[in-house]
């Protein structure tokens, strides 16, 4: 997987070699970072750019297992930047784990602009979603925004977030689904029964049935397969 936009920056490249307009503004305080990606050159490029932005310590990991070990050893860093397509597990699950262990800021750097991946990353707790094909300035802007306490979406995926979780019903009228309704529909798509869904989400089977009834009313169909198909076409579930 080539680091298209970031390939201009390498760890050995001095900041002065970059055009003045591309040199990030230095931050007043040093910050610590964990970079998780299975491609060494990309990790080096990210580390170089972070150093220019004021990173004092950059830890690196090439897999979910390595990231977990690093996270356990260091404790929460100020920032984590991670790929979703790791060789030994789910990047989305890693986002959730880090957030649950007190990591305050997480940036996803991915190769895919798939709507489900974008929404899942933010729902899991990421503050930014950047594409590996992004220009160095977009990456810098996104990271700086997160360090300053904000959120950021790559300009090419921002329209995906703007649509929220709207699913066109059988009459083609967009209906907004709640986050819980999306979770329920995803588990239906995974082939789980109401009882299994309830166990997964700590809900009663009756509550799951109520969620499905509301989804059915919104989408204009009580057929589970059709509800799933409508949500998949809208990119709300995978």
From TrEMBL:
<feature type="modified residue" description="4-aspartylphosphate">
    <location>
        <position position="83"/>
    </location>
</feature>
<dbReference type="InterPro" id="IPR000792">
    <property type="entry name" value="Tscrpt_reg_LuxR_C"/>
</dbReference>
<dbReference type="Pfam" id="PF00072">
    <property type="entry name" value="Response_reg"/>
</dbReference>
<keyword id="KW-0597">Phosphoprotein</keyword>
<dbReference type="InterPro" id="IPR001789">
    <property type="entry name" value="Sig_transdc_resp-reg_receiver"/>
</dbReference>
<dbReference type="InterPro" id="IPR011006">
    <property type="entry name" value="CheY-like_superfamily"/>
</dbReference>
<keyword id="KW-0238">DNA-binding</keyword>
<dbReference type="InterPro" id="IPR058245">
    <property type="entry name" value="NreC/VraR/RcsB-like_REC"/>
</dbReference>
<dbReference type="InterPro" id="IPR039420">
    <property type="entry name" value="WalR-like"/>
</dbReference>
<feature type="domain" description="Response regulatory">
    <location>
        <begin position="32"/>
        <end position="147"/>
    </location>
</feature>
<feature type="domain" description="HTH luxR-type">
    <location>
        <begin position="170"/>
        <end position="235"/>
    </location>
</feature>
<protein>
    <submittedName>
        <fullName>Response regulator transcription factor</fullName>
    </submittedName>
</protein>
<dbReference type="Pfam" id="PF00196">
    <property type="entry name" value="GerE"/>
</dbReference>
<dbReference type="InterPro" id="IPR016032">
    <property type="entry name" value="Sig_transdc_resp-reg_C-effctor"/>
</dbReference>
């Amino acid at each position: 997987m080539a680091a298209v936009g970031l390939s201009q920056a390498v760890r050995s490249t001095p900041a002065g070699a970059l055009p003045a307009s591309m040199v990030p503004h230095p931050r007043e305080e040093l910050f610590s970072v964990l970079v998780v990606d299975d491609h060494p050159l990309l990790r080096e490029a990210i580390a170089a750019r972070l150093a220019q932005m004021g990173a004092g310590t950059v830890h690196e990991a090439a897999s979910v297992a390595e990231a977990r070990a690093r996270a356990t050893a260091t404790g929460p860093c100020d920032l984590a930047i991670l790929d979703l397509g790791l060789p030994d597990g789910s990047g989305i699950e890693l986002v959730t784990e880090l957030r649950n262990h007190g990591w305050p800021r997480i940036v996803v750097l991915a190769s895919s602009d798939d709507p489900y991946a974008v929404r899942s990353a933010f729902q899991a707790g990421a503050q930014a979603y950047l594409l590996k094909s992004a220009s160095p300035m977009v990456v810098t802007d996104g990271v700086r925004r997160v360090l300053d306490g904000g959120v950021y979406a790559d300009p090419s995926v921002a329209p995906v977030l703007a649509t929220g979780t709207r699913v066109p019903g059988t009459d083609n009228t967009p209906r907004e689904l709640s986050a819980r309704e999306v979770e329920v529909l995803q588990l239906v798509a995974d082939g789980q029964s109401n009882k299994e869904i309830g166990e997964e989400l700590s809900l009663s089977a009756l509550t799951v049935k109520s969620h499905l009834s509301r989804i059915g009313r919104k989408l204009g169909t009580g057929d589970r397969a059709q509800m799933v198909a409508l949500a998949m076409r809208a990119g709300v579930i995978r």
